[in-house]
Amino acid sequence: SQKKEMLYEGKAKQVFATDKPDEVVVRYKDDATAFNAQKRGQFDRKGELNNAISTLIFGYLIENGIPTHFISKLDDREQLVKKVDIIPLEMVVRNYVAGSMAQRLGVEEGLKSPVTIFDLCYKKDELGDPLINDHHAVFLGAATYEELNEMYALTDKINQLLIALFDKANVILVDFKIELGKTSDGKIVLADEISPDTCRLWDKDTMKKLDKDRFRRDLGEITEAYVEIYNRLQIALEK
Ligand code: C5P
């Protein structure tokens, strides 16, 4: 496909039209933002690393039967994907307590949860993506109850597959966020990206953070952590 005009620019990615109406090009930028873009920065090779890592993970999920928007990696920074209408809900899954849940509930970070915790957030920058529940989502017209059931089931399946993959990489999948979209024929598929920007990933032996918390909390060695995740995933996927 030929890349055409830019359709959308987000905090970390740009989306371009192609000569096919149902395919778009996603370009990964080096810009990093956190805390609803109150903290901004850039780090070396971020776009390239997230593109590479997300490509590995989407390939693995597709092989395991997960419907996604992914078509192919085009180059260092770009992917060809199916055009979808993004459902304006962030599906957050937590296997361990961390981040906003630790803060909100006053629970220590690092506690393993006996149950899989699903958070729903309304994608709305002006509001800072507030935590909502199913009823709010239906009220807002973001999804029906039936669609939410399907979305939770898909998200749960993705969590189980990702836990197994990261386990092979000696990494704990603490939590992550995904976005789902609807294709032109109305099918709900995994969209956006899965990368150290959207997951909390801790080394199993040292508990070292290998994700965007290194940027959020100014821990340094950000690029190194993303490279480490890429290398470990590559090896894990050969096993
Ligand atoms: O900030 P919080 O603890 O709620 O984040 C939970 C998980 O969702 C983390 O892995 C974080 O990186 C991810 N997340 C995200 N995009 C957001 C909010 C959270 O990728 N807008």
What does this structure look like?
It comes from Epilithonimonas arachidiradicis. It catalyses: 5-amino-1-(5-phospho-D-ribosyl)imidazole-4-carboxylate + L-aspartate + ATP = (2S)-2-[5-amino-1-(5-phospho-beta-D-ribosyl)imidazole-4-carboxamido]succinate + ADP + phosphate + 2 H(+). Pfam families: SAICAR_synt. Its EC number is 6.3.2.6. It is a single chain. With 239 residues, the chain is of the alpha+beta class. It has 2 domains: 3-82, Phosphorylase Kinase, domain 1 (2-Layer Sandwich); 85-221, D-amino Acid Aminotransferase, Chain A, domain 1, CATH 3.30.470. It has helices at 46-63, 99-105, 134-139, 145-168, 213-216, 222-238, and strands at residues 3-9, 13-18, 23-28, 31-34, 39-42, 70-73, 78-82, 85-96, 112-122, 131-132, 171-182, 188-191, 199-203. A hairpin with an 8-residue loop joins strand 9 and strand 10.
